[in-house]
Every structure is written in structure tokens, then in C-alpha cells.
Backbone:
């Protein structure tokens, strides 16, 4: 079995384990768990907030309007979804797409950390302030978006981070959309810089 196939198998096991074990109350109202999706050998992992209606129905992250926008930005930097890995802080849809509550994030955190450490990307990209604040609770996305952040966490193997505005928030806001697209275009160079350091 090659390394990629083996990692796919382990991710499936992690998801199966946490689907049973996760105490998140959102399980009661969501249709299903929305697992991370993409290349288990990805150099970049994107972390969103929580599944929305389309994601809840299809069981795949970022498949609605925000996901379409994300795909377009990936294309701009000559990448496809199959090249990256996309997941969420919270694996179940909050009712009416409300913000996930602290307890719901806490209950899904170990699941997220386990998948991140298996993939072991070179760079973790936050999609929006919720995922950014989960790692950098005192920062403001308006101040740190588009900048490479380096921080060593005891329980996460990756120590390079980059925050973006959430595609859903930027979709219908002209200036935020422009900022997001400009920040997104920095990703290939940011990745090269990280690889040069290693
Ligand atoms: N927004 C998110 O944060 N995650 C999704 O999966 C879809 C929309």
C-alpha cells in the first residue's frame, strides 16, 4: 500500500472513531458529519468554520456558493481541490447557520487536531475569523489577514499559518472580496518560502 492510500485509510479510521465519540450537541440537528476532504498529502490545509446547508446535505465541505468561490481562487493560483485538503473547525452544521458556540468547537477540536497531524501540511490556511481565533484567540482578522504567522503549538505538527477572510463573508462585499483575492494569490510564494526554510 502506498503512503497516500495508507493515509486515506487512516483518515477514514479517524473520522469513524470521532463520528462515534464526538460529544458535539450539533449532532442532534445535523443531517450528517461533514468530514475533511481532499488530498491527504496536501501541503496546504484550509480550515473553515462549520458546514452550511449544502455541506450538511452532501457531507462534503465547501460545496455551496462559498465553495464555488474557493474553487475559483484555487484555479487562479493553478491549483485544484484535489491538490489541497479542506476541513472545518466544527464537523456538524449549526441550526440556521448560526455561529458555532465555544462548547461545540471544544467538542470537535481533538478530531481536527488528529486529522491535521496526520496530513501534516506545510501551511494551515484559516478561512475566516472563527478558525483563525481557534488558534490565535487574541488576534483580529482585519489586522493579520494575508500575513504568514509562525507559532509552535504543543499538539499540532504544523507551525506555519495564514489567515484569509471567509469566502462567504467576502462574496458580496466588493472591498473584502478584492482583499481576499489578493491575499489568496500570495499563497504559492508563501509556500515556497516555507519550503526554502526547511
Ligand atoms: N462555510 C464553512 O465555513 N465551511 C463550509 O464547509 C461551508 C461554508
Residues:
Amino acid at each position: 500500500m502506498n503512503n497516500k492510500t495508507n493515509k486515506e485509510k487512516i483518515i477514514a479510521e479517524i473520522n469513524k472513531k470521532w463520528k462515534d465519540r464526538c460529544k458535539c450537541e450539533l449532532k442532534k440537528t445535523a443531517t450528517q458529519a461533514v468530514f475533511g476532504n481532499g488530498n491527504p498529502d496536501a501541503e496546504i490545509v484550509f480550515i473553515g468554520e462549520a458546514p452550511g446547508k449544502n455541506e450538511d446535505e452532501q457531507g462534503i465541505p465547501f460545496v455551496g456558493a462559498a465553495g464555488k468561490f474557493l474553487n475559483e481562487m484555487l484555479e487562479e493560483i493553478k491549483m485544484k481541490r484535489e491538490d489541497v485538503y479542506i476541513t472545518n473547525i466544527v464537523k456538524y452544521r449549526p441550526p440556521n447557520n448560526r455561529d458555532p458556540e465555544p462548547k461545540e468547537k471544544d467538542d470537535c477540536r481533538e478530531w481536527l487536531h488528529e486529522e491535521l497531524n496526520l496530513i501534516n501540511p506545510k501551511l494551515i490556511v484559516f478561512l475566516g475569523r472563527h478558525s483563525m481565533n481557534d488558534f490565535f484567540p487574541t488576534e483580529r482578522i482585519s489586522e493579520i489577514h494575508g500575513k504568514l504567522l509562525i507559532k509552535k503549538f504543543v499538539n499540532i505538527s504544523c507551525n506555519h499559518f495564514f489567515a484569509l477572510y471567509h469566502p462567504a463573508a467576502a462574496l458580496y462585499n466588493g472591498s473584502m472580496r478584492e482583499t481576499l483575492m489578493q491575499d489568496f494569490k500570495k499563497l504559492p510564494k508563501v509556500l515556497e518560502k516555507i519550503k526554502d526554510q526547511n
Remarks:
- The first strand starts at residue 37 and ends at 38.
